[in-house]
DNA sequence: CTGTTAGCGCTTTCAA
DNA sequence: TTGAAAGCGCTAACAG
């Protein structure tokens, strides 16, 4: 059993300094309003007592609690940690704290989290939301919202435009002589997935390439490994995967099937989160998740400050990063 | 510009339902105290008005805000996401929210975060804290604290005991005929690092193995890659790395130096976070981070509930996971 | 079982 | 420049 000091309140400081409670409050929020010597006396007393302003009380009184929420589908997916980190850094710069939520790719859980967070945060960043547009709109009416990788008009959003990179990927494969490729798709509700699939299709036609869509339900290593048979049965000589993690699974599955990469099969990932750590090193579409996290939070804080909501649509371009998993067809 | 609904308060619901404010409060917190029909009437009114209890006001009044903090050194290190996820899941079960903090391996930042969180959370989990024992003790006086991978008497802690696994690793290498091995160490303030280093040393002597310590400042891919020269210059034929990420860097560095694994050199990681995704698949010491996260939060919630602090020391055992990066010396 | 009445700790008019 | 006083929205005795 341990005793824990009950918080020192503003009144105790006021008494100790021989001033009114309001003056103590002012000393901490708008010292300019007080005589420097008064401020100093108050601060001295506060210091001596170990006074720390009570965040909750302040929040109740002002309606501002200096927290923003960040909700992601899967922390364990290497796409998100850098984004989270950047978001946190940006929040920190304005003395905001971040509430992190993980939905496990479940829209239901996401809805629940948004509800749980609302009321404790001033605003929310939804990264790669799997919610329906309706739900997102509904939430946006209740509190300031910024979206990452979700394109909904009227709601501020930052989009990592993988089309540019994906297009380069397809052209690269075309140049290498591939004529039939597979796209290993991601989550159905993922905006990025739709975008990538569309980009592949639109780039493939002029390049004279056939595209087969192979569905991997979740963006995961296992998912990727499980669809290798399906990929091979399409007769494709190359594949682009929804993301690097899926691609890594595909890589493993191919190896298990004695298909060697890139000699027998070319593979390209997306998001470039694995760097050169796979073997062979994975060719991938670059990623801007750090900027995305930073910009999203910064946008959100702007909204909070200006009390207005502009229709921002911030697009971040990408490109193909060549490594060792692609080669010309035999 | 968008108008956002100002919150409906308990008073409005009370008026609408023709009861006192306290009854509304009771309907939400202890419905059992009220007549079922009263509760129903209140709920109906609340529903109609779209009433949602104000978390902040409740927190101010009760002193409990249903949040716990979790601070980790580096979200991007694959050791932590599963831990975070598990912690969040466990918190969720008791309707608690998690504040996540990332310190970037900096004690200073960690101290700052603890301060920022205190006052908004009821308790804190410090995972792999890089703080000095003094600082940790100081914080523990101010609010309920649970430690992960930090062994400080009197503060509840859950420890992943890698000694067992590391010992197996050394014995495994001994059996393969290795006589001189290197330990690629981790962060200086890391309890796990000290534990692993000690376990290696104590297991090596009876096995007739010499150990050289090679310091990698940070647990990262880059760090690992950078110390390969140092490792090779010790004349070791095998190495155990502080963690898998570091090991992966070492693997890359070895390959760049044309040292092939396991033919020319054997390598073992720790934490088993990379699964079989490296090439060759990394032999590693198993990891219990999911349990650690779950147990830590559960311990913390217990403390909050019982208002007492028992001297818990929960130890999770580990073992060696054999894959493909070790073999007998030539 | 339900209403009345104080607060929780801080901010913020309004006066002085 | 400072103090007094009225809340912010909710909970928790204490009566009845």
From TrEMBL, chains A, B:
<dbReference type="GO" id="GO:0000976">
    <property type="term" value="F:transcription cis-regulatory region binding"/>
</dbReference>
<dbReference type="InterPro" id="IPR046335">
    <property type="entry name" value="LacI/GalR-like_sensor"/>
</dbReference>
<keyword id="KW-0804">Transcription</keyword>
<feature type="domain" description="HTH lacI-type">
    <location>
        <begin position="8"/>
        <end position="62"/>
    </location>
</feature>
<dbReference type="InterPro" id="IPR010982">
    <property type="entry name" value="Lambda_DNA-bd_dom_sf"/>
</dbReference>
<dbReference type="GO" id="GO:0003700">
    <property type="term" value="F:DNA-binding transcription factor activity"/>
</dbReference>
<dbReference type="Pfam" id="PF13377">
    <property type="entry name" value="Peripla_BP_3"/>
</dbReference>
<dbReference type="InterPro" id="IPR028082">
    <property type="entry name" value="Peripla_BP_I"/>
</dbReference>
<dbReference type="InterPro" id="IPR000843">
    <property type="entry name" value="HTH_LacI"/>
</dbReference>
<keyword id="KW-0238">DNA-binding</keyword>
<keyword id="KW-0805">Transcription regulation</keyword>
<dbReference type="Pfam" id="PF00356">
    <property type="entry name" value="LacI"/>
</dbReference>
<protein>
    <submittedName>
        <fullName>LacI family transcriptional regulator</fullName>
    </submittedName>
</protein>
């Amino acid at each position: 059993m341990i005793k824990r000091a009950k918080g020192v309140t503003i009144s105790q400081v006021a008494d100790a300094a021989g001033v009114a409670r309001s003056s103590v409050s002012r000393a901490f929020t708008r010292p300019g309003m007080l005589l420097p010597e008064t401020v100093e006396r108050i601060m001295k007393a506060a210091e001596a007592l170990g006074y720390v302003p009570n965040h909750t009380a302040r929040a109740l009184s002002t309606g501002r609690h200096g927290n923003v929420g960040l909700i992601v589908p899967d922390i364990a997916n290497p796409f998100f940690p850098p984004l989270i980190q950047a978001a946190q850094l940006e929040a920190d710069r304005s003395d905001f704290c971040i509430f992190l939520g993980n939905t496990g790719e479940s829209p239901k859980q996401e809805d629940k989290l948004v509800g749980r967070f609302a009321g404790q945060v001033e605003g929310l960043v939804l990264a790669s939301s799997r919610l329906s547009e309706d739900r997102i709109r509904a939430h946006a009416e209740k509190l300031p919202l910024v979206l990452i990788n979700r394109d909904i008009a009227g709601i501020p959003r930052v989009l990592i435009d993988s089309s540019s990179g994906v297009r380069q990927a397809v052209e690269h494969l075309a140049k290498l002589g591939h004529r039939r490729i597979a796209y290993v798709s991601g989550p159905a509700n993922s905006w990025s997935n739709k975008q990538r699939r569309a980009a592949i299709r639109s780039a493939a036609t002029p390049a004279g390439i056939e595209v087969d869509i192979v569905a991997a339900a979740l963006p995961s290593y296992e998912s990727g490994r499980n669809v290798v048979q399906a990929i091979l049965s399409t007769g494709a000589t190359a594949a682009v995967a929804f993301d690097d993690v899926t691609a890594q699974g595909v890589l493993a599955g191919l190896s298990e099937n004695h298909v060697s990469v890139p000699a027998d099969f070319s593979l390209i990932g997306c998001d470039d989160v694995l760097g050169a750590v796979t073997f062979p090193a994975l060719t991938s579409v670059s990623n801007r998740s750090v900027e995305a996290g930073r910009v999203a939070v910064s946008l959100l804080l702007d909204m909070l400050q200006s009390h207005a909501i502009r229709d921002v649509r911030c697009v971040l371009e990408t490109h193909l990063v060549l490594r060792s998993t692609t080669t010309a067809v035999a």
